[in-house]
Design goal:
about 50% helix, globular, single chain
């Protein structure tokens, strides 16, 4: 199933290649959390129809995910977002781009599924760090809102949780 999902992702990315925008175009505040090399290799597609692999209904927990009205989803180095999302959602999805890069496709897919099945969507480890970074970005008055290297933080999180 993992290979089938991966193939669907590759086909989805190829079908949307002409709609991709480079993340270097995001406002400068995002550049305080991600370096330019990382942003140059990450892309987003604005769409009101977030693509999901509807054929995964036989995976426990997948029906709940497929029914969710998500505002963004990340596949490898590209994420799909609604045009009206806040900037912090870009920051959240970029965490997932870093996770894909650090874990690789097969490990990311299997760990994401395992995390959602074990902890639920919001509390799954790969989502938890993305929501934490997003909250840091949103909370302008917090001491944690000082710029930091998100990719390094994600890597440390993955190491701590023995995912890499």
């Amino acid at each position: 199933m993992i290979e089938t999902i991966n193939q669907w992702i590759d086909a989805t990315l190829e079908a949307n290649r002409d709609k991709q925008q480079c993340c270097l175009s995001l406002p400068k505040r995002v550049h305080q959390f991600y370096d330019e090399e990382f942003l140059a290799s990450a892309f987003f597609v604005e769409t009101t129809a977030i693509p999901k692999p509807t054929f995964i209904t036989n995976i426990p927990g997948a029906e709940e995910y497929l029914a969710m009205d998500v505002r963004g989803v990340t596949y490898k180095n590209t994420y799909f977002v609604h045009p009206d999302i806040p900037l912090s959602t870009h920051v959240h999805e970029l965490v997932h781009v870093a996770q894909w890069k650090l874990l690789g496709a097969e490990t990311f897919i299997s760990e994401y599924i395992r995390g959602v099945q074990t902890y639920g969507y919001r509390d799954s480890p790969l989502e938890d760090i993305a929501f934490t970074v997003q909250q840091d970005f949103e909370d302008e008055n917090a001491s944690t809102n000082k710029p930091y290297d998100v990719v390094e933080r994600v890597n440390l999180f993955l190491l701590k949780n023995k995912l890499v």
